[in-house]
Amino acid sequence: MLNSLYIKNYRNLAELRINSAGRVNLITGKNNTGKSTILEAIALYITKSDLKLIYQLLDERGENYKLLPNNKNATEINIKALSSLFTNRSINFDKKKAILIEGVIGKTLFGEDDFYEDSIGIRFVNYFDKVVEIPEEVTVNMRIKTERIIVENIPDELLADYRIGLEIRVGNRSSILTLEEDRPYKFGIRGNGKTENFQFIRTRNIEKENNGLLWDNITLTDKEQFVIEALKIIEPNVERIAFIEESPRERTAVIKLSNSNNILPLKSMGDGINRILTIILALVNSDNGFLLIDEFENGLHHSVQEKLWQIIFNLSEKLNVQIFATTHSEECISAFEYVMNNSSKSFDGKLIRLENNNGIIKQSEFNKDELRIANENDIDLR
Q1: pLDDT in tens, 311-326
Q2: pTM, to two decimals
Q3: Residues 6+ apart with CB under 8 A from 284
Q4: Is the pLDDT of residue 281 over 60?
Q5: What DSSP state is assigned to residue 19?
Q6: DSSP of 167-204, one letter per residue?
Q7: Cβ–Cβ < 8 Å for 170, 49
Q8: Cα–Cα dist 165/174, whole Å
Q9: Beta-carbon-side half-sphere exposure of residue 235 (alpha carbons within 13 Å)
Q10: Could you give the CA distance from residue 88 to residue 25 in angstroms, rounded to a whole number?
């Protein structure tokens, strides 16, 4: 579990530290304060900067540029796309401008931050390929290996002699991605380290396409009942759920109600019950890992959010899942606070509010008591 998090030079987060995270965390703030950006940074940290994820994030923001008839320079296109990950879209080879994402354990004896060993670093580099021969044994046979050597502080007149790549560092392991391929994630770095179990629900709800696979993972387990109980928040008569194939590439959720013999398509029952299905399926597939939810309240009427938060808090403890969600909704914040302060169990939750002060993103953190006081005094935390 992440106790706290340090992010530097990632998108609009020039430097941000979340001092204390709970098991369930709700991130609030106005537009352009970096709520979704924090989720992305956590996803990069969890996946050890997985290249496929990086290009998915670029694609969703419309920043995964394609080769065009008048521009077939893959390096130029990839630099343009990847530069959007950096604060001010900086194309800079200075180590101080690198993206850093670090999990903070706490303080050392000397009062300095103590980071987990698998911190993430991403930066543009100049490099050249060096061919080395490696003896297989004490024989005449030799094996050829190419090493990518980073060169710092190159004079302008010599820049053309070197190639531009992307260095991805995980802890003390560093790899250099060549940017000369159209889709570098298909030819790039492998084995950056063990990836944590996690699910990431984006705002567009494209995860509906994956719900069938997530359901398959829990079929004939106790987790099926967790999903059924969550759907009952909206439809108390839900008895069973299944996924049927409508076409070779599409599977649709259907449900059986206890008061009817008919099998109904779940998508005919409104956005709310489908949103709940997506959230709970992702949660029960995140054992001992992480769940990220962008714009939690999407499709959910305020009257069901309190019950859903109750289920989420309970399952996060039962399955050992740490959750980070974002919201714009005052009702969502109120429901979150109510569950933390009015449940028979003591839940571990935090609210993290972001503010953009002249381009500098700052955070304020509220535990359950501070959140209750804010709500009682009608302090706007959106």
Answers
A1: 999 999 999 999 999 9
A2: 0.90
A3: 214, 218, 223, 226, 227, 315, 319
A4: yes
A5: -
A6: EEEETTEEEEEE--SSSGGGTS----SPPPPEEEE-TT
A7: yes
A8: 12
A9: 25
A10: 28
